[in-house]
UniProtKB/TrEMBL annotation:
<dbReference type="InterPro" id="IPR011989">
    <property type="entry name" value="ARM-like"/>
</dbReference>
<keyword id="KW-0732">Signal</keyword>
<feature type="signal peptide">
    <location>
        <begin position="1"/>
        <end position="25"/>
    </location>
</feature>
<dbReference type="InterPro" id="IPR011030">
    <property type="entry name" value="Lipovitellin_superhlx_dom"/>
</dbReference>
<protein>
    <recommendedName>
        <fullName>HEAT repeat domain-containing protein</fullName>
    </recommendedName>
</protein>
Length: 534
């Protein structure tokens, strides 16, 4: 560790002036704010006991007022962090270098002016659209450096409260503008995380329809807010979503979009313009759902579930609503689970929306999720509903649960089943764990090759798809099985076909429709195994 040296004489020499033999006035202090050796001279005055106390305080404040040089602020290294002089000697920050009694007195003297400067209003934009530098930033940065220093510099509770209150007010009074302000030593999010839950109590009030920082504000509330703050944010985000998802919002945005098209000299029809507004609305809603995902809360759960259940909402919007519920569905709330179940089983639900509903159900405890998944096996006319539900069930199982699963699958060719189904089931079964005393996956699945129930037999064959060449004989015995595979309508997208060589020995392939279990084995399963290892 570098040794910090507090040698006032050396400091004075380094400053290039013999301060010990000169009378130093307040005008000298302010003049040094703009001179090359000013920081070292001000440091010497602030730390040396021979100077009048008001002058020492003014020197410390002048270090904060100094304009940056080469983008560098002098106050924090010279007051708090420490710096290295021209001789390579490390020096403590002026506040750190003081003894405990002087440090307490210095902070008590500085804090009123720090707070006053931190409360300066944000400068207005100039006529050319640019914004002047925020004069409060250097004082805010020094205040935070003092407050967050380890070991603590600010030990008086009243002083700490003053600084924390001023910093919180600074951050929240112009949050949108200051979140992205790059010319500051400490970012707002860093400050909030240090200051804790009390600093974000007013943030729910900043969540507004026109806000461009909704997601970041929501993130701070989610990470730092107490239960009351999160509840307020949950309510406010639902309010914003309802505002955006309204005809009033459409009416307000339509002329703005029309004007933007005119400025861009874009010839847009009324129909196309309507679609532009709807697309914009969708983008804004999705942003709000993204923020909802971070905050959670009962208001958001109720709103998102209801929104996702509405078939007249677009697929993307419904997906965003279900995504917002990740990890939020209450396992003890039967109504929540039933709403998800209804979305998943509805034949009119788009596949992508259904998949997310299944994913939310899959986040529930196994004892709740699995019975719901099994209920979906027969609740829908679409084989894909069963496929997704069954795949989630398999991810919760061990080989001990395999008999119940196989018994739930279609029994005969009259029940629709896509060829992808048994192959994917087989792949998942290969990964099942075997509890102590239970059969390994291969041993557990092999008897189902002789099953009289079609779904179980096909899934057992799917287990060997892409498997070892040494197992070919095990499945090839079924090449003579003339049981029909399930038949599907064209719209079901569950046709049975495999690519086969156009002619013996030819690399050129053609699609062959599969009609029986034996053909499934001969043209699909066995070829997939013949290139496998032993």
């Amino acid at each position: 560790m570098k040794k910090w040296v507090a040698s006032w004489a050396l400091v004075a020499v380094a400053a290039g002036v013999g301060l010990s033999g000169c009378a130093v006035s307040e005008s000298d202090v302010h003049r040094w704010e703009g001179t090359e050796q000013g920081p070292r001279k001000l440091y010497a005055v602030a730390t040396h006991a021979k100077y009048a106390w008001p002058l020492r305080v003014e020197a410390a404040l002048s270090l904060i007022k100094m304009k940056p040089r080469g983008g560098k602020l002098w106050a924090i290294p010279y007051l708090v962090d420490g710096y290295v002089d021209e001789n390579g000697e490390g020096r403590e920050g002026a506040i750190v270098a003081l003894n405990a009694e002087e440090r307490k007195k210095m902070l008590e003297s500085m804090v009123p002016e720090l707070v006053n400067q931190i409360k300066q209003p944000l400068p207005s934009k100039k006529e050319d659209g640019t914004t002047p530098a925020d004069p409060s930033v250097p004082f805010k940065d020094v205040a935070f450096a003092l407050l967050s220093h380890d070991p603590p510099l600010v030990t008086d509770d009243a002083v700490r409260a003053q600084l924390a209150g001023a910093l919180t007010e600074w951050a929240t009074s112009n949050l949108e503008a200051r979140l992205d302000y790059t010319v500051q030593q400490y970012g707002i999010e860093q400050m909030f995380r240090y200051l804790g839950a009390n600093s974000v109590k007013t943030l729910p009030g900043l969540l507004k329809e026109e806000s461009s920082k909704t997601d970041r504000i929501a993130g701070l509330i989610a990470d730092l807010g107490d239960a009351e703050t999160k509840q307020k944010a949950s309510v406010q985000l639902v309010t914003i979503a309802k505002q955006i998802d309204s005809q009033a919002w459409i009416n307000k945005q339509t002329p703005l979009v029309e004007e933007a098209n005119k400025r861009a000299k874009a010839n847009v029809s009324k129909e196309a313009q309507t679609e532009q507004v709807k697309k914009y609305q969708e983008q804004e809603l999705i942003k709000v759902f993204t923020a909802m995902k971070k905050v959670g809360g009962r208001p958001i759960i109720d709103y998102a579930l209801g929104f996702a259940a509405k078939g007249d909402n677009s697929e993307e919007r419904r997906k965003a609503a279900l995504a917002a519920l990740e990890g939020r569905v209450d396992k003890n709330n039967t109504a929540d689970i039933e709403k998800l179940f209804d979305i998943a089983k509805n034949d009119d639900t788009p596949d992508a929306v259904r998949d997310l509903a299944f994913t939310r159900l899959g986040e529930l405890p196994k004892e709740i999720a699995v019975p719901k998944m099994y209920a979906l096996f027969d609740a829908s006319k679409k084989w894909k509903v069963r496929w997704v539900a069954a795949s989630l069930v398999l991810r919760t199982m061990t080989t001990k649960d395999l008999p119940e699963f196989m018994n739930r699958l279609p029994k005969n060719p009259g029940q629709k089943m896509g060829m992808t189904e048994p192959i994917s089931y087989g792949g998942l079964i290969t990964k099942l764990d075997a509890p102590a005393g239970e059969k390994k996956p291969r041993e557990a699945i092999t008897p189902y090759l002789k099953s009289n129930e079609l779904g179980a037999k096909l899934s057992a064959l799917g287990f060997f798809y892409g498997g070892k060449k040494a197992d070919v004989a095990t499945v090839a015995a079924l090449e003579g099985d003339n049981q029909a595979v399930p038949k599907c309508d064209k719209d079901d997208e569950c046709g049975w076909s495999c690519d086969v060589a156009k002619a013996p020995g030819s690399a050129e392939k053609e699609s062959k429709e599969i009609h029986t279990v034996g053909e499934f084995v001969k043209f699909c399963i066995v070829p997939s195994m013949e290139g496998g290892g032993s």
